[in-house]
């Protein structure tokens, strides 16, 4: 069984300065900004459980990262996001489906021109090809996890700010891997998926 870091641990670790990185002058500022989590797998997932306890009830109300990919599968991806006070995710359109579950804070969703207030406990689905924007309208960070289907980001992506995420996406450094965009029949043919559950 693959047991992931508890969400509280992720936040605790992410809010500490990167002393081991910043202490080394060999690393450039862009290397620090475009951090990848080397502990996260970059290839297709193993056939193991990925467990994230208390995702809807115990995520802290503060995080040091705008976006962190938690898990990437053959057909979906789980990403944790924190929208700071007064911030937003950006007016955008994806070519993949997206389901967002809000765990802390309040905000306003705009989907295809229609506004909807959102709060902790709400689920919002954005179909592929649909314009969307989420704005934090509250006094605390708006925290959510989102499931993309298929994947939208690099499996190791960690973006401290929206600006870092935007820059990495625009430069082509935050792309979903090819293996996460293969059709079901191809994955079955290549032995990545079989109905026996034995590999």
Protein topology:
Layout: E1 2-3, H1 7-14, H2 19-22, H3 29-33, E2 50-51, E3 67-72, E4 77-83, E5 92-93, E6 97-104, E7 106-111, E8 114-119, E9 123-126, E10 131-136, E11 142-149, E12 158-159, H4 162-170, H5 184-189
Parallel strand pairs: 1-2
Antiparallel strand pairs: 3-4, 3-12, 4-11, 5-10, 6-9, 6-11, 7-8, 7-10
Write structural notes for this entry:
This protein is of the alpha+beta class. 16% of the residues lie in helices and 30% in strands. It has five helices and twelve strands. The chain has helices spanning 7-14, 19-22, 29-33, 162-170, 184-189; strands at 2-3, 50-51, 67-72, 77-83, 92-93, 97-104, 106-111, 114-119, 123-126, 131-136, 142-149, 158-159. The strands form three sheets. A six-stranded antiparallel sheet has the order 9-6-11-4-3-12. The longest helix has 9 residues, at 162-170. The radius of gyration is 17 Å and the shape is globular.
Quickly list its features.
six-stranded antiparallel β-sheet; four-stranded antiparallel β-sheet; 12 strands; 16% helix; disordered N terminus
Q: Calculate Rg over CA atoms.
A: 17 Å
Helical run tally: 5
Q: What general outline do the C-alpha atoms trace?
A: globular
| Regions with little confidence, pLDDT below 50 for 5+ residues | 1-33
Strand content: 25-35%
Kindly report how far apart the N and C termini lie.
15 Å
What spatial order of strands do you see in the largest sheet? Answer: 9-6-11-4-3-12
Strand count: 12
The main β sheet shows up as: 6 strands, antiparallel
Structural class: alpha+beta
Helical fraction equals: 10-25%
Mean pLDDT across all amino acids? 83
From N to C, what is the helix and strand string?
Answer: EHHHEEEEEEEEEEEHH
